[in-house]
Amino acid sequence: MANQVFEAVRTLMAVREYQDKEIPDDALRRIVEAAHLTASAANRQQWHFVLVQDRDRLRKLGSLVRTGPYRANAAAAVIVAYEKESRSGVSDASRAIQSMMLAAWGEGIGSNWTGLTGIDAVREEFGIPDSYDVLAVVPFGYPRHKVIGKKKRKRFSEVVSSERFDTPLA
User: Fold this and answer.
1) CA of 147: how far to CAs of 13, 16, 81, in Å?
2) What is the Cα–Cα distance from 38 to 76, expressed in whole angstroms?
3) pLDDT attached to residue 115
4) What are the tens digits of pLDDT across the range 61-113?
5) Where are the alpha helices (DSSP H) in 20-138?
6) How many beta carbons lie within 10 A of that of residue 116, not counting itself?
7) Which whole number is the average pLDDT over 7-18?
8) CA-CA distance, 40 to 62, in Å (whole number)?
9) How far apart are alpha carbons 75 and 60 in whole angstroms?
10) Which residues are CB-contacts of 86 (< 8 A; sequence separation ≥ 6)?
């Protein structure tokens, strides 16, 4: 029996070019709900997600985050923020991002993580309180080109051990 979740993890690729095609509201809802349903330390859920679909707002996002101007061409984006005082905020929000990306991939929708904390211009522009830090802006859209899930990774034995570091997993 095929494991659909493993298959999504195995084939998920970063997508930076998108078709000019809207994403259905129910698919966007599932993507954002995947973030909402993600586990968090002590179930504190010290995060907030802002779904952006307006074309002008997406262009603005594209100009504010240096690492991903292509997000201006996405059908939607999610701003991921976490409470600054949270000790687990970065890890919890990171897990939520991965959940959204996998849920999107399962819908045939591509994405990519852009930004990495401290994106104050995004926080200010989108009305996120000072008590939050913006971890990332994740664009979503249908890939412009066929994406083949062939990843370049180190050999499994280089990054996985059994019981102790450097003991090969049989």
Assistant:
1) 7, 11, 29
2) 20
3) 85
4) 888 888 767 778 999 999 999 999 999 999 999 999 999 999 999 999 999 99
5) 25-37, 55-64, 89-106, 120-125
6) 12
7) 92
8) 29
9) 13
10) 44, 46, 92
Cα angle: 108, vertex 114, 120; to 5 degrees: 135
Selection from 51, 52, 48 nearest residue 92 by Cα? 48
Nearest to 19 by CA among 142, 166, 111, 163: 142
Cα–Cα dist 40/95, whole Å: 8
Show the tokens assigned to 110. 């591509």
Q: Report the pLDDT value the prediction gives residue 70, as an integer from 0 to 100.
A: 79
First to last CA, the chain: 23
- Gap between the Cα atoms of 17 and 80, Å rounded: 21
Does position 44 have pLDDT exceeding 90, yes or no? yes
Query: How many Å apart are CA 55 and CA 76, to the nearest integer?
Result: 8
Cβ neighbours of residue 144 under 8 Å, at least 6 residues apart?
Answer: 17, 18, 19
Task: Look up residue 123 and give its two tokens.
Answer: 């926080």
**Backbone phi and psi for residue 126, each to the nearest 5 degrees, phi listed first:** -105, 15
